[in-house]
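Re-run with default settings, no changes from the original entry. Doing this only to confirm the output is reproducible before filing.
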Amino acid sequence: MKRLSFLTGPAKVVSALLLSLALASCATYTPPNPQINGVVDPAMLPSAVRTAQWDIGAVRYAWSGSGINYYEAGLFPTLLLVRNKSGYNPVVYAEECRGIGPGGVEYPPYPVAAAADVVFNSTAYKKSAEAAVVGGLTGGAVGAGLGALIGSGFNGGWGAGPGALIGAGIGAVGGAALAQQPSMDQYRATLYQDIATYAWRAAPIAPMGLMPGYLYFPANLGIHSLRVVLRYDNMVQTYIVPISNPVW
């Protein structure tokens, strides 16, 4: 007895085309592509801390003019940059860092989930979501913007080579535009991914590696410097790093 065979020839081609069309009709949302920008070495920042072993800099977030303004949403994102010039593999933990305000008052950074909640509960988020979802805005009008200072493909990103973040399966949004009009859930997820993707990560910084990442503080506290605790080889060093304006 002959077994039943699968579709062959023209029937198989037609079947494949129908399947492709069905899948295409389900694709109502295309994730944004990562932004590719360069990052200036922290040693080039006027207020950077420079030592024989590493250079540490901090840069305040700058709103790109499109998408949500994180300052108005209640956050003061600060980009921390650490260049490792030693043979060690130092680690910086976000929870050990502090933002320093007037009078030397220190503030801990928000964890990612708490930072996202601050944004989602803000009037700025409600306005931006309405503009994107109800107003029908697409493209750069709904870009998030944190990646404008980092990018996702620069040499040494996240302590490894180009594309390491994406290769690790984390993915990146980085202020890139949504490909088409999102739903409310998709817009919310896009902003959360933006915040999470570019947050500082407590990963060993490879020799000659450059590690960037945001620390999220409450807005409107006058934070002007960071206290950064760097751990390596059973040793601990603490640095006070003034926060610079973007220079690139």
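The chain has five helices and nine strands. Residues 83 and 217 are 22 Å apart (CA to CA).
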